[in-house]
Design goal:
238 residues; alpha+beta; Alpha-Beta Plaits; 7-stranded mixed β-sheet; two-stranded antiparallel sheet; globular
């Protein structure tokens, strides 16, 4: 049986607080076990209902969901369709650590080739079609994603890695597939040239394996009329 979606939990909390059904429209969907440290949603709230709503809503929500701010926006604002930029962070630890369980992706891989992984990452801003890095590319009108930044950091022992990517949009499974390919490069099982060929040829590989969902965080969403600072620190930042 699948667990409750975050949207459902928030809608139930709003119903309890406002005593009326309220639909939440989020900035996007994520896979199960994927996190969000900054997530934007919009909802229509009647004037006067916003009094102490932040306090009342957080009181009604479980400990693993928090609402940081409630901001009035214009009537036509849309949390999903108005977004012009999204940033995701992906965290990896290569030494078993119970304190990171569920907050970072565990890969028991030593001596990853970080230089080759970074060479591949540098290619991401040079291409804009990610057809080969999508679970269902033909379900989209197009597979163009304009990646504006992508980086990889590691701590001094190279047993904690932090990958960050920013784009105007992302395809289904795109980031986890990208990280899976980067790990293959780090293990020496894929050449950077093959990685670039996927970007260039726009052909779906026979086998598409995405990285573990636990390491992925939606961390920033930007709008033409709104850009909020990040409020949560990550447990594995180098």
């Amino acid at each position: 049986m699948s667990g409750l979606a975050v949207q459902e939990v928030i809608e139930n909390a709003l119903k309890n607080v406002l005593k009326t059904s309220t639909t939440v429209n989020g900035c996007g969907r994520t896979d199960a076990q994927v996190h969000a440290s900054q997530y934007i949603f919009h909802a229509d709230i009647e004037e006067g209902q916003e009094l102490d709503l932040l306090f009342r809503l957080n009181h009604a929500l479980p400990p693993d969901i928090a609402v940081f701010e409630i901001i009035p926006v214009h009537d036509k604002a849309h949390a999903r369709f108005d977004a012009i930029s999204r940033t995701y962070d992906y965290f990896i630890h290569t030494s078993k650590d119970p304190f990171l369980n569920g907050a970072s992706a565990y890969y028991a891989e030593k001596s990853l080739d970080l230089a080759s992984m970074r060479t591949a990452i540098a290619l991401l801003t040079q291409y804009d079609d990610y057809y080969a890095f999508c679970k269902s590319p033909n379900s989209n009108k197009h597979t163009v994603c304009r990646v504006s930044a992508a980086s990889l950091w590691a701590d001094e022992h190279a047993d904690r890695l932090h990958f960050q990517i920013t784009s105007n949009r992302f395809l289904r499974g795109m980031i986890r597939i990208l990280v899976g390919r980067l790990l293959e490069i780090g293990k020496g099982r894929m050449r950077v040239e093959t990685f670039e060929q996927h970007l260039r040829d726009k052909k779906t590989p026979k086998i598409i394996t995405g990285a573990h969902p636990q390491g992925l965080y939606l961390s920033k969403v930007v709008y033409p009329y709104l850009e909020l600072p990040q409020r949560s620190a990550f447990p594995t930042l180098p």
